[in-house]
Structures
1.
Amino acid sequence: MTTELPPRPVQWKANLIALWVAQVGTTLGFSFTFPFYPLFFEELGGLTEERAAFWAGVAGWVFGVGMGLFSPIWGVLGDRYGRKLNVLRALGLGGLFLALSGFAETPMQLLASRFVIGATSGVVPTIMALVAAHTPRERLTFASGMIQSGLFLGIALGPLFGGLIYDALGIRAAFLATGGALWASAGVVILLVREDFRPPQAASSFAQPFVTLWRLGTSRDLLPLYAVVFLVLAANLVIQPAVPGLVERVEGGSGTGTASGVVFAGMGAASAASAVAMGWIAGWMGVQRVLAISAALAACAALIPYFAQDYLTLGLGLAAIALFAGGLSGLVNGLIALRAPAGRHGAAFGTAQLSHAFGVALGPLVGGAAVIGWGLRSVFLLDVAAFALVLVVVAALLGGAQGRRE
C-alpha cells in the first residue's frame, strides 16, 4: 500500500523570482519591436515621419481594442482553470503572432496583426494574478513593485538590442527575435513556477463570470484604481509615436534604430529604478501621497523634451519623465491585489487590463493624431495635461486610501 505524499507548499519567493525573470524576458521581447513601429510603417508604406507616427498610433489603438475585448475573459478563465496555464497561453500565442507580424507586407496587414496580438497576449495581468494568488498579503505591494521593475528592465534593454537588430538585420528579424523571447519566457514558467490551484467547487452559470467582472469594474474600492491605471498608461504612451521621428531630427538621421533604442533604454532604466524606489518610499510616506507627488513631478519633467534641441537633452528629459512616472503602475497594481476578493485575482487584474487596454489604445492614437495636427513636440504638452489629470484623480478618488493599512 502506497501513501500519497502531500503536495509541497508553493514558495512565493521562488515563484516571484521566476516570474520576475519571465516578465523581463517577455517585455524584452516586446520591446525589440514596439518602439520601432513608426519606422516599420515608413518602410511598408513609404510614409513621412508624421504619417508613420499616426499609423503607429492607430496600431496602438487596435492593439488596445483587442486587449480590452479579451483580457477580462482570459482573467475569468484563469480563475477557473489555473493562472499558470493562463500565463503560458499568453506567452505562447503572443510569441506566435508577434513572430508572424514580421511577414506583414502592407500597413493594413500590420494593423490586423496588432489586433490579434492584443487579443491573445496580455501577459502582465496574467503574471500579476499568479503572483497575487501565492504572495502573503503584507508583501503584495513589494511583489507588485518587483514585477513592475522586471517589466521596465525589459523595456530598458529591449529597445537597445532591438535597435541593433533592426539596423543590422531589419525589422523582420526583430519580430522573429520577439517571438523567441516570449517562448523562452514560457519555458522558464514551465520549469520553475509552481501553482497550488484549486478550481471552483461548484460550476457557475454561463453569465456568472460576466456578473463578477461587472461587480469588480464598478466596485467603489477598485474603480478609482482602474481609472488611475488608464490615465497612467495613456500618459506614458501618448509620446511613443513621436519619439523615433524626433530622435531622427535631433540626432541627424544616422543609425535611427540604435539612437532610438538608446533613448528608450534610458527611459526603461529610469522606470525600473522608479518602480523599486516608489514601493520603498510609499512604505513611510503613504501610497496616495507618493502617487500625487510623482504625477506632479512627471508633468513638470515633460516640459524638458518639449524644449530640447539636441539628442542629449531629449534623452535626459524622457528619462526624467520615466523616473517620476515609472513606479505609478506598480503602486496601483499593489493596491488592486490588496483589494481584490479572495480567489478573484485573475478577474480583478483582467478587469484592470481593460483599463490598461483603453490607455494603450487611446494614448498612442491621440499622440499620433497630435503629431499630424500640431507636430512632433505637441505630444509633450499632452503629457503635461495627462499627468495633471492623474494628480486630480488621485486627490479626488483615492482620498480614502491613505487611511487604510495598504
2.
Amino acid sequence: MTYLPYVVAAYCVFAVVLGWDYLAPRLQVRAQLRAAQLRAARRKDVPRAPDAPLSRE
C-alpha cells in the first residue's frame, strides 16, 4: 500500500493555495489603484465653481 498519490495531491493543493495567496493581494491592489486613478481623473475633469462648498465624497 502506497500513499504516493495522496502525498502528490496534497503537495499540488498546497502549491495552488500558496500561489493564490501570493497572487490575490497583488490583483486586489492593482484593481484599487486603477479605481483610484479613474476616480482622480473624473474629479479633475469636473469644473467646480470658485465659491462652491467642498464635498466629503
3.
Amino acid sequence: MIHTRRHELLSNTLMVLGVLLIVAGIFFTVWLRSSIKSLQYRLGNLQQRQHQLIKEQRNLTAKKENLLSITNIDQVAKKMGFDFPDRSKVIHVKEKS
C-alpha cells in the first residue's frame, strides 16, 4: 500500500512537471518568435534610415562639389568685386634677410 502511494505520488509529480515544462516551452517559443519579429521590425526601420542618410550624404556631396567649383568661385568673387590683377598692378614684396 505504501509502495503504490509513493508510485502514484511520483507519477503525479512527474505528470505535473511534464505539463509545466510543456507550458513553459510554449511560452518560451512564443516569446522567442515575438522577439525575432520585433528585431526584424527594428532592422527594417534602421535600413530605411540608412538609405535616407545615404541619399542625404550624396546630396550634400553634390552641393559641396557645386559650391567648390571654379565657376561658382569666380561668380562669387566677381560679385564681391574681386578681379585678376593686371601685371602693372602687381607689387612684389621682398622679405628682409
4.
Amino acid sequence: MTACIHDHSDWQRGDPTGAAGRYLTPDMTLEALSLVKQGRIIDLGRIIAPGAPANPALMTPYVISPTVRASDNIAMRRANGGENDAGAILERIGMTTHVGTHIDALGHFARGDAMHGGRSAAALTTPVGLADLGVENIPPMVTRGIALNVASLDDGNHLQPGRAVTADDVKTAFDRIEATPRPGDVVCLHTGWGRFYDTDPARYIAGEPGIDLEAAKYLTSHGVIAIGADTMAVEVLPGADFPKIQMPVHLHCLVDAGVNLIENMLLEPLIVQDISVFCIIVAPAKLKGATGAPLRPLALV
C-alpha cells in the first residue's frame, strides 16, 4: 500500500469542502482542459424518471406531477388583462437526493455521532437540513477524470454482486491505461452492473460489485477528490464482513477522507469508445443543507 500523502487529522474543522477544496487547484483545471482535443461532450448522467432504482428502506422514489397547467395560467392572466395567452407550465418533484445519478455530500454519513472534521451529527441535523457539510459546500470540479474498466475481471461483461474490487485490481486497472492516481482526480469505476439500472431495477438494488475498503484507501491516499461508479453505492454490497461491518467505504471516504462519492453513473459511453483519461465537470445543484444532489457529470474529450 502506498504511504498516505496526507494526514486527514490536520484538516481544518471549519472547512466543509473536504478533499476537493484541499487538492483541486487552478493549475489542475487548466491541465484537465488541455485534455480536450475533439470538443466532444459525453454525458455520464442517467435520466431520472419514475421507476428509477431506489432503496425502499431509505429512499422515496422519483415522483413528478403538474402543479400549474397552461390553461389555468392563461385564465389567470386573462383575468388580469392579458391578451396574448402566455401559459406557464410548472410541476412539483418529490424524491430523495440519492435517486439517479447523484453526488454524496460529506454530511451524508456519520460514524456514530462523528461526521467529517469531528462534527456532531446530532448537532448538525436540523429540521431544515444540515447546518454544515451540505451539498452546497461541494466546490465545482473541472479536473482530470479517470475511467477504470474492471467489468471483465472475472471474464464476463459485468461483475457479480458481492464481488470486491480490491486495491490490487485498481492498481492493475491503472497500469493497463498507463496512468497513476494523483491529487485532484475523479476516478470512475465501470463494473458493468449499470446495465441493470433500466432493464432490471430490482436486481440492480439487490446487491452490487464495488470497491472494498482497502481499494478506497488506496485511492484516497493519492488525493483523489471523488470516486464514482456505475452502481448505486460505489462500494461492494454485501461486503465481506456483512452484516457486522456495513458501509465501510462510505464511512472512510465521506467521514475520514472528505472524498465525495458519485453514484449511478452512466460510464458505458466512455468504455465503448476506449476513453480512459479525460476532462470531467462535476457541478451539483447547490441545495442548501442537502446530503446529496442530482448530478449530470460531463466528460470533455
